[in-house]
């Protein structure tokens, strides 16, 4: 794993507060988790302290150096994070899906239009940009609206598990399909639904790509205090070029300063 660059102590302390990496600010309930996601704009689900960016798991642990154990089933912090994830999916007040590079991410409603402008696929482009398997699954869901994994696999005709999973991940990354509930009895299964059914206004709001890149960069920088070369790209899945465009737009409006190559810091101080 690439070694993280050293950050100034004031930046680490700023992140400790805003990303809930300190004991008194630990997340322990769905309402607290939703508030955390609303404040940071977007957060990973189960990444630990070795990865940059806000994370629900790290916020549950309440410490900067949290590391995911190998045996997560017996670990109370990872178990709590998993239960919170399931409850957030059921409540449907924050967006949850696998985005770029297959990373499970929570997105606050206010940030959905910006993520959609970058990663979403318009209906007119589906035939050209989606695989055949993804189109089959999407057609079934548009007819049935919500289905369990096994039923969706059968009705779509995508019987191969690996091919079905790839197609479903493709639809999540395109912001077309989201999980709506997790069931554990009689066996573990997800229910899937159309993203636009849960967040119709946010997904129908049109913004330009340039605005989206700027606001995604703002969302990260506002709670990170500073970003170093490649960090925004690693956190969000943006290309480094697009991440740079977003950060430079913040400099142009005076929200951030660029003291050296690839480094951006809040103008207002910490």
Task: State the gist of this model.
The protein has helices at 9-18, 30-40, 56-61, 76-91, 112-119, 126-129, 132-144, 149-156, 161-173, 195-198, 200-204, 209-224, 231-236, 240-252; strands at residues 42-44, 95-98, 104-107, 146-148, 177-183, 189-194, 226-227, 256-260, 263-266. It is an alpha+beta fold. The chain has three domains: 9-113, no CATH class; 121-174 and 176-204, Winged helix-like DNA-binding domain superfamily/Winged helix DNA-binding domain (Arc Repressor Mutant, subunit A, Orthogonal Bundle); 209-266, Winged helix-like DNA-binding domain superfamily/Winged helix DNA-binding domain (Arc Repressor Mutant, subunit A), CATH 1.10.10.
Can you walk through the features of this model?
This protein has 14 helices and nine strands. With 270 residues, it is α+β, with helices and mostly antiparallel strands. It folds into three domains: 9-113, no CATH class; 121-174 and 176-204, Orthogonal Bundle (Arc Repressor Mutant, subunit A), CATH 1.10.10.10; 209-266, Winged helix-like DNA-binding domain superfamily/Winged helix DNA-binding domain (Arc Repressor Mutant, subunit A, Orthogonal Bundle), CATH 1.10.10. A three-stranded antiparallel beta sheet has the order 1-3-2. Strands 4-6-5 form a three-stranded antiparallel beta sheet. The chain has a three-stranded antiparallel beta sheet with strand order 7-9-8, covered by helices on one side. The mean pLDDT is 94.
């Amino acid at each position: 794993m690439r070694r993280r660059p050293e950050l100034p102590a004031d930046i680490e302390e700023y992140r400790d507060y805003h990303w809930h990496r300190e004991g008194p600010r630990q997340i322990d309930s769905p309402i607290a988790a939703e508030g955390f996601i609303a404040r940071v704009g977007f957060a990973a689900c189960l990444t630990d302290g070795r990865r940059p960016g806000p994370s629900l798991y790290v916020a549950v642990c309440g410490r900067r150096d949290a590391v995911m154990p190998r045996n997560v089933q017996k670990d109370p912090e990872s178990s709590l994070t998993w239960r919170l994830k399931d409850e957030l999916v059921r409540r449907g007040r924050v967006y949850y899906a696998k985005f770029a590079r297959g990373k499970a991410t929570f997105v606050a409603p206010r940030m959905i239009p910006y993520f959609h402008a970058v990663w979403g696929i318009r209906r007119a482009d589906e035939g050209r940009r989606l695989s055949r398997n993804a189109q089959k699954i999407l057609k079934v869901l548009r007819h049935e609206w919500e289905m369990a994994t096994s039923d969706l696999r059968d009705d779509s005709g995508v019987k191969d598990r690996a091919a079905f999973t790839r197609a479903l991940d493709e639809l999540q990354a395109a912001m077309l399909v989201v999980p709506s509930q997790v069931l554990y009895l009689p066996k573990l299964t997800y229910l899937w639904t159309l993203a636009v059914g849960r967040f119709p206004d946010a997904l129908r709001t049109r913004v330009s790509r340039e605005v989206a890149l700027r606001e995604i960069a703002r969302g990260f920088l506002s709670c990170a205090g500073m970003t170093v070369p490649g960090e925004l790209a690693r956190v969000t899945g943006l290309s480094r070029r697009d991440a740079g465009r977003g950060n430079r737009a913040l400099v142009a409006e005076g929200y951030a300063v660029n003291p050296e190559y690839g480094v951006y810091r809040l103008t207002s101080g910490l």
